[in-house]
Design goal:
Elements lengths: L1 H30 L17 H14 L29 H5 L1 H5 L4 H29 L5 H12 L2 H8 L3 H16 L3 H14 L7 H6 L3 H21 L3 H6 L17 H12 L5 E4 L2 E4 L1 H22 L4 H15 L12 H10 L4 H12 L4 H4 L16 H26 L2 H10 L13
Antiparallel strand pairs: 1-2
Length: about 450
């Protein structure tokens, strides 16, 4: 009883700290007070640049121009943002739906409206995770940890600062876990297709529906993606290879201070240890052979996880956790705000895997804290300069490990738990009866 009471006190204390952190992040969106804590708010073009990239790309698409290569804006005309990048990364249909709605306002008012909407989404995610954590078996301090993570997760600051679209997908993944726990496979499939059209990171859930033998859902997803993409590429054929390059994975990531995936950490090691002479040369292009090894490693990870999905215990929420965490192992581009996608995974694991709670909580706290960036930034660099070339190898390894290793731990936990039928039975027995209604549901 005393331990339970102490846990609840700690839970309330953590939630109070998270609320204060959240308030500081909201204040800093206007003041910039926390900018120096993060690479992306220090060494990028400026506030709202990701939002303005979607905004300007959508403007170009509405004018019949290319979505994926265009002249950069300078704020010289109405509906022209002050800056943007030239790499629109979403499905073409996104520009003609969500993007088109956003461009009804001028750039800055549209950005501030989006900030408000994202904040509402974050509050919904925190409240919903608190409700779901109780349904899934968490009580006391463990239940309070769920909203505390959502509210005190510092990468959320970059979601607001950059004007990103990841938080919406994180709430969607939380919804997928809720549907999977309830055994509502029909709604699960439909909702997955919607998340896929928002951001294609959830394409990694294909093995889950393969295991469930939901061929109709897979066909519907393929049809929706085709409808969202092919008409545009039929009219803009030169854009297809520009868009397809974002799907290239496993050849080694760009090692810069904004990239936080396991691919980046492995690439730092490979760049440091691999003999420069071991490379392929094609004219002026040089391709180190270690990049081929990275492709083999990536494919091996995917094959192992797919095999475990097909042969492990039939636990749909756990499969979703596995493939969500897999994104951070196989993607070449993992920006700090992408770690928001792990919030639903953390909430589910804290509630449903009592044996793993300590390790999962440590991973969650490490992901929620700011990276070591502020300790190793190089003063005096211009805004878009990368500080990483100025760091020692030890600093680079520690910096990239701060995000990559906690995410890798969640991937490992998911993989191990899928192969542990005895542990699954114990965890199911520890949870309320209503929380396990969807576990073990057949195709």
């Amino acid at each position: 009883m005393a331990a339970r009471r102490a846990g609840k006190v700690l839970g309330w204390a953590a939630l109070a700290v998270a609320v204060l952190v959240h308030a500081a992040m909201l204040e800093s969106v206007a003041s910039g007070r926390l900018n120096r804590l993060f690479n992306d708010s220090t060494h990028r073009k400026g506030q709202a640049v990701d939002f303005f990239t979607v905004y300007w790309g959508s403007i170009q698409g509405a004018r019949g121009a290319s979505l994926y290569t265009y002249d950069l804006p300078h704020g010289a005309a109405p509906h022209e943002p002050p800056y943007a990048y030239s790499n629109f990364r979403y499905f073409p249909g996104f520009a003609f739906t969500i993007g088109r709605l956003l461009t009804l306002l001028e750039p800055w008012p549209a950005y501030w409206l989006w900030v408000v909407l994202v904040e509402i989404g974050c509050l919904v995610g925190a409240w919903w995770s608190w409700r779901l954590a109780a349904q899934w078996g968490a009580a006391g301090g463990w239940r309070l940890a769920a909203p505390a993570l959502w509210l005190g997760f510092t990468p959320y600051y970059l979601e607001l600062y950059m004007g990103q679209f990841t938080l919406v997908l994180a709430v969607g993944i939380l919804g997928l876990l809720a549907l999977a726990e309830a055994g509502r496979e029909r709604e699960l499939g439909r909702t997955w297709v919607l998340t896929l059209l928002w951001k294609f990171a959830t394409a990694l859930y294909v093995p889950v529906f393969h295991r469930l033998r939901r061929w109709g859902v897979l066909a519907a997803a393929a049809g929706a993606v085709a409808l969202f993409t092919l008409p545009y590429f039929a009219l803009h054929r030169a854009d297809l290879p520009r868009f397809a390059r974002y799907f290239v994975m496993g050849l080694g990531a760009k090692t810069h201070a904004g990239n936080h995936g396991l691919q980046t950490l492995a690439s730092v090691v490979a760049e440091a240890l691999w003999p420069p002479a071991w490379a392929l040369h094609a004219g002026p292009t040089e391709l180190p052979l270690w990049r081929g090894g990275m492709l083999v490693l990536t494919l091996a990870l995917v094959v192992a996880a797919w095999r475990r999905t097909l042969r492990g215990r039939l636990d749909v929420p756990l499969m979703l956790c596995l493939w969500t965490a897999m994104y951070f192992a196989v993607s070449r581009d993992v920006w700090e705000h992408h770690t928001l996608l792990l919030l639903p995974v953390l909430v589910w694991m804290l509630a449903r895997l009592p044996r793993r709670r300590a390790g999962v909580l440590v991973a969650g706290v490490l992901l929620a804290l700011p990276s070591p960036f502020v300790l190793v930034d190089v003063p005096g660099l211009p805004p878009e300069a990368d500080p990483e070339p100025h760091w020692t190898l030890a600093v680079r390894l520690v910096y990239h490990a701060a995000r990559a290793l906690p995410a890798a731990w969640l991937l490992w936990v998911s993989y191990r738990e899928l192969g542990s039928r005895v542990a699954g039975a114990r965890d199911a027995a520890a949870a309320p009866a209503g929380a396990v209604a969807g576990r073990g549901s057949g195709p």
